[in-house]
Amino acid sequence: MTCGEKEAGRMKTVVSSVQAKELDQYAIEEMKMPSLILMERAALAVVDALEKKAETLKCVLVVCGTGNNGADGVAVGRILHLKGYDVNVCCLGEEQRYSPELRQQLEIAKKYCVSLVNNPSWNEYTTIVDAIFGVGLSRNVTGFYLEAIKQINQTFARKVAVDVPSGLCSDSGRILGHAVRADETVTFAFLKKGLCLYPGCEWAGETCVADIGIYERKNETPEAYTHAVEWQDVRCLLPKRAENGNKGSFGKVLFLAGSRQMAGAAYLCASACLRSGAGMVKIHTAQENREILQTLLPEALLSTYAEGQADFQMLKEDLEWCDVVAAGPGLGQGPQECSLLQFLLENCAKPLVLDADALNLFGKNPHWAKKLPKTCVFTPHLMEMSRMTGKTLEEIQREPFHSADEFAKRHQVICVLKDARTVIAVPDGRSWVNLSGNSGMATAGSGDVLTGITAALLAVGEDPAHMAALAVYLHGCAGDVACGRKGDRSMTAQDIIGALPEVFKRGVDKNGEKQSNKGIYIAGRDCAKF
Ligand SMILES: NC(=O)C1=CN([C@@H]2O[C@H](COP(=O)(O)OP(=O)(O)OC[C@H]3O[C@@H](n4cnc5c(N)ncnc54)[C@H](OP(=O)(O)O)[C@@H]3O)[C@@H](O)[C@H]2O)[C@@H](O)CC1
Ligand SMILES: [K+]
């Protein structure tokens, strides 16, 4: 898709700084779109966002750096000036370092008598437009740039960032020394990875993706870019339910979950799975969990084993019965669970989700890597990823895309690296970042719920990678509904399950075009949040 129209199911494209620059160049060189026109459209998009709160535009300062982000800023200043606003433009940095576009914009601005200032009184302004650095930031911010960013952050003015808040790494979302804490960011053409990840997404504030005439290359393959599932993709990706289907045709899911005293995790994943459309669910679990699971979830079938008497024959039959297997929640890591999981891996060719203790056991038994079935989804949180890879938490968090991608390729599995912004990577190079959800989901059992949703979707979907990305998105949407009902402090994993019906109903409802990508929207499109 190259013409700017958004096909349902194509998902929002997320780019790195290198890709952003390549696509700028592609628009200019291949598509013959003059750079000045792109810049004018970028500036108009910023002005459009600024005017949404026109009452804050009494006195505007535009702070510009030496590159094309600064050139955008000067164009914003000119347009505001010509619209009659009281605006000052301040260019930081040495003139000899100015980019050709900045020089050109300054020449035009001077002809239109735009007010250029050197030492602004920072506190005089009601709005400050930050155009110091965009995707070209290449190192830590120091010197007078650092001072300017500190001054901007100290004011009470509304702060609107051009493309990326200055000081934010547009690839990792990390703060390079110091960054502008923006109320809003108008980013051009595509979301940047650093605007999706923490802390970047917080520093960007409400983020608007503005179409300025830069599109993906023709015939680009899906693995070329990262994507984010959006609400309008759900209806397209969610497998249709056949009117004449039966409980057998909607997926039979087997859970190896819940050791002695750990019935809760087994209940949560199985319950979430049933609420996500699975036709039948069976839990292979410790005998002590039978009564409680039968009471809590009478819809689930049970196979139980006594302490020290793992029943491999029964597990073999369960594996033959099911369409999809999920192992790990509350499983424990004792010798019995270890041998059950090993047996499962040796005898299972069906799509498999590995979570929680299954991941910890996998970490302790790296030779199991050779036993994995063709379709396998790993859902580690950072700590589990660290145990499996030997990387530190910091290393994983600094480069979540790289960590997930590396793991996916090494083991030929789908890697769902869970964090506040979950990253999904597939061996063929495709990747997603999830934008739904909230801090209330960092609660016990939330991961078990995701395992259940993922298993249910794998049982019916064609592309397991799409199903994994969709499961993560819907899990976040359910978390957002639960948060709306109970608040981020009080919501529990059961509340997330309780919200699934509303999310799935909206997912198939033509009128349910709501968006749960918190704080990120596309210019010109009205998106209500959950
Ligand atoms: N191409 C187009 O037509 C379009 C471009 N667009 C816009 O262009 C932006 C990208 O422009 P860009 O590539 O010029 O990079 P930008 O972010 O302005 O910064 C580079 C400058 O900063 C400097 N610098 C970097 N780090 C520094 C540091 N720590 N401390 C000090 N200096 C530092 C660096 O200096 P140098 O590293 O060379 O010393 C260089 O001078 C993009 O975000 C979007 O807003 C849109 O209008 C769409 C059309
Ligand atoms: K900026």
UniProtKB/TrEMBL annotation:
<comment type="function">
    <text>Catalyzes the dehydration of the S-form of NAD(P)HX at the expense of ADP, which is converted to AMP. Together with NAD(P)HX epimerase, which catalyzes the epimerization of the S- and R-forms, the enzyme allows the repair of both epimers of NAD(P)HX, a damaged form of NAD(P)H that is a result of enzymatic or heat-dependent hydration.</text>
</comment>
<keyword id="KW-0521">NADP</keyword>
<feature type="domain" description="YjeF N-terminal">
    <location>
        <begin position="20"/>
        <end position="220"/>
    </location>
</feature>
<feature type="binding site">
    <location>
        <begin position="418"/>
        <end position="422"/>
    </location>
    <ligand>
        <name>AMP</name>
    </ligand>
</feature>
<dbReference type="GO" id="GO:0052855">
    <property type="term" value="F:ADP-dependent NAD(P)H-hydrate dehydratase activity"/>
</dbReference>
<dbReference type="Pfam" id="PF03853">
    <property type="entry name" value="YjeF_N"/>
</dbReference>
<keyword id="KW-0520">NAD</keyword>
<dbReference type="InterPro" id="IPR000631">
    <property type="entry name" value="CARKD"/>
</dbReference>
<dbReference type="GO" id="GO:0046496">
    <property type="term" value="P:nicotinamide nucleotide metabolic process"/>
</dbReference>
<keyword id="KW-0511">Multifunctional enzyme</keyword>
<feature type="binding site">
    <location>
        <position position="265"/>
    </location>
    <ligand>
        <name>(6S)-NADPHX</name>
    </ligand>
</feature>
<feature type="binding site">
    <location>
        <position position="447"/>
    </location>
    <ligand>
        <name>AMP</name>
    </ligand>
</feature>
<dbReference type="InterPro" id="IPR029056">
    <property type="entry name" value="Ribokinase-like"/>
</dbReference>
<feature type="binding site">
    <location>
        <position position="448"/>
    </location>
    <ligand>
        <name>(6S)-NADPHX</name>
    </ligand>
</feature>
<dbReference type="GO" id="GO:0052856">
    <property type="term" value="F:NAD(P)HX epimerase activity"/>
</dbReference>
<feature type="binding site">
    <location>
        <position position="381"/>
    </location>
    <ligand>
        <name>(6S)-NADPHX</name>
    </ligand>
</feature>
<dbReference type="GO" id="GO:0110051">
    <property type="term" value="P:metabolite repair"/>
</dbReference>
<feature type="binding site">
    <location>
        <position position="163"/>
    </location>
    <ligand>
        <name>(6S)-NADPHX</name>
    </ligand>
</feature>
<feature type="binding site">
    <location>
        <position position="330"/>
    </location>
    <ligand>
        <name>(6S)-NADPHX</name>
    </ligand>
</feature>
<keyword id="KW-0630">Potassium</keyword>
<feature type="binding site">
    <location>
        <begin position="134"/>
        <end position="140"/>
    </location>
    <ligand>
        <name>(6S)-NADPHX</name>
    </ligand>
</feature>
<keyword id="KW-0456">Lyase</keyword>
<keyword id="KW-0413">Isomerase</keyword>
<dbReference type="InterPro" id="IPR036652">
    <property type="entry name" value="YjeF_N_dom_sf"/>
</dbReference>
<comment type="similarity">
    <text>In the C-terminal section; belongs to the NnrD/CARKD family.</text>
</comment>
<comment type="function">
    <text>Catalyzes the epimerization of the S- and R-forms of NAD(P)HX, a damaged form of NAD(P)H that is a result of enzymatic or heat-dependent hydration. This is a prerequisite for the S-specific NAD(P)H-hydrate dehydratase to allow the repair of both epimers of NAD(P)HX.</text>
</comment>
<dbReference type="GO" id="GO:0046872">
    <property type="term" value="F:metal ion binding"/>
</dbReference>
<dbReference type="GO" id="GO:0005524">
    <property type="term" value="F:ATP binding"/>
</dbReference>
<protein>
    <recommendedName>
        <fullName>Bifunctional NAD(P)H-hydrate repair enzyme</fullName>
        <ecNumber>4.2.1.136</ecNumber>
        <ecNumber>5.1.99.6</ecNumber>
    </recommendedName>
</protein>
<keyword id="KW-0547">Nucleotide-binding</keyword>
<keyword id="KW-0067">ATP-binding</keyword>
<feature type="binding site">
    <location>
        <position position="130"/>
    </location>
    <ligand>
        <name>K(+)</name>
    </ligand>
</feature>
<feature type="binding site">
    <location>
        <position position="69"/>
    </location>
    <ligand>
        <name>K(+)</name>
    </ligand>
</feature>
<comment type="similarity">
    <text>Belongs to the NnrD/CARKD family.</text>
</comment>
<dbReference type="InterPro" id="IPR030677">
    <property type="entry name" value="Nnr"/>
</dbReference>
<comment type="subunit">
    <text>Homotetramer.</text>
</comment>
<feature type="domain" description="YjeF C-terminal">
    <location>
        <begin position="230"/>
        <end position="507"/>
    </location>
</feature>
<feature type="binding site">
    <location>
        <position position="166"/>
    </location>
    <ligand>
        <name>K(+)</name>
    </ligand>
</feature>
<dbReference type="Pfam" id="PF01256">
    <property type="entry name" value="Carb_kinase"/>
</dbReference>
<feature type="binding site">
    <location>
        <position position="145"/>
    </location>
    <ligand>
        <name>(6S)-NADPHX</name>
    </ligand>
</feature>
<dbReference type="InterPro" id="IPR004443">
    <property type="entry name" value="YjeF_N_dom"/>
</dbReference>
<keyword id="KW-0479">Metal-binding</keyword>
